[in-house]
């Protein structure tokens, strides 16, 4: 049964990634109206007689959403049944199914009633939460054989605060990026990293503020992750999952920034734009895993003292 559960876990995670990219494709190709104001049918039909590119993209996304939602629901139920004794399983199962349903309802509400760009920008973030829950459930399934025991990790308070802060701030960066797409602010600035070539003035309108706000937030996230990677390399050489995990996070945020720049340089090249969405999705999954590790980490006084002494660090907050 464990082998089947692992296969289902992999399909669920890959399905969620496909769903995220499908949603990004709908937004980036302006295919949200591809099925008109009809939902769940498309132009009032199961298969429309007149198929445009936009209709095919929107209809395909709806079909994929339905299939992935079914797979994730089966996966969550199986996890609840077979590994429900693990502390995080039930919460992650409910989160995975709940947020994929919320994501679907937000999409349906936009088709039927039309939502503001600021509400629609939440759509991608909601999908990411569902993806993160499925990803963590997958890791729980693969953790059953105890080849890696997260509970043996020792994560200090500084790393904990930085990790939680970065995870929360990354969600804000994701929201601003989605807002750029939904407000069609992607090309309001004709250069990068500044909005206008050779001009150091403030943005002139709301769309430029949205675009530059996202760039500044992404830049701050890049610097923050770089710093934490430095801390991890310096202090966590004996914890490979933290050491290499933060190196991976830095590689992903670097690719995210580079792909964002090339979106501008290539005038919204679709493939690059989809990679831009893919990198941030994987990065959010990695950050979610760090939060999971923190919840598993048991930093008691004895382990903390050993950790700090091994690094010759003596924080003033530690009791003697």
From TrEMBL:
Segments passing through the bilayer: 59-79, 91-113, 119-142, 163-180, 212-231, 243-265, 271-294
Top EC class, one word: oxidoreductase
Residues bound to heme: 214, 276
Main location: membrane
Keywords: Cell membrane, Disulfide bond, Heme biosynthesis, Iron, Membrane, Metal-binding, Oxidoreductase, Transmembrane, Transmembrane helix
Pathway: Porphyrin-containing compound metabolism; heme A biosynthesis; heme A from heme O: step 1/1
PANTHER family: HEME A SYNTHASE
Family statement drawn from the similarity comment of this UniProt entry: Belongs to the COX15/CtaA family. Type 1 subfamily.
UniProt protein name: Heme A synthase
Provenance organism: Pallidibacillus thermolactis
Gene assigned in the entry: ctaA
């Amino acid at each position: 049964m464990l082998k089947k559960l692992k296969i289902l876990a992999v399909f669920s995670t890959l399905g969620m990634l496909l769903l995220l990219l499908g949603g990004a494709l709908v937004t980036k190709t302006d295919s949200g109206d591809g099925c008109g104001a009809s939902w769940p049918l498309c132009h009032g039909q199961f298969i429309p007689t007149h198929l445009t590119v936009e209709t095919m993209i929107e209809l395909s996304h709806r079909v994929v959403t339905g299939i992935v939602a079914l797979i994730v629901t089966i996966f969550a139920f199986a996890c609840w049944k077979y590994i429900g004794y693990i502390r995080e399983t039930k919460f992650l199962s409910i989160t995975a199914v709940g947020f994929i349903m919320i994501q679907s309802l937000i999409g349906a509400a936009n088709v039927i009633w039309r939502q503001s760009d600021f509400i629609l920008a939440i759509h991608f973030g909601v999908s990411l939460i569902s993806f993160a829950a499925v990803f963590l459930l997958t890791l729980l399934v693969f953790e059953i054989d105890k080849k890696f025991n997260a509970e043996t990790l020792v994560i200090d308070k500084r790393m904990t605060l930085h990790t939680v802060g970065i995870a929360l701030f990354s969600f804000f960066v994701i929201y601003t990026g989605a807002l750029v797409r939904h407000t069609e602010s992607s090309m309001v600035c004709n250069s990068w990293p500044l909005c206008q070539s050779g001009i150091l003035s403030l943005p002139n309108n709301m769309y430029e503020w949205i675009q530059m706000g996202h760039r500044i937030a992404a830049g701050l996230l890049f610097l923050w992750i770089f710093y934490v990677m430095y801390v991890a390399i310096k202090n966590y050489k004996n914890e490979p999952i933290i050491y290499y995990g933060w190196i991976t996070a830095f590689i992903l945020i670097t690719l995210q920034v580079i792909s964002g720049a090339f979106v501008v340089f290539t005038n919204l090249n679709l493939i690059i734009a989809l990679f831009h969405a893919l990198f941030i999705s994987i990065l959010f999954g990695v950050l979610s895993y760090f939060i999971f590790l923190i919840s598993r980490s048991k930093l008691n006084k004895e382990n903390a003292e050993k950790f700090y002494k091994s690094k010759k660090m003596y924080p003033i907050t530690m009791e003697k």
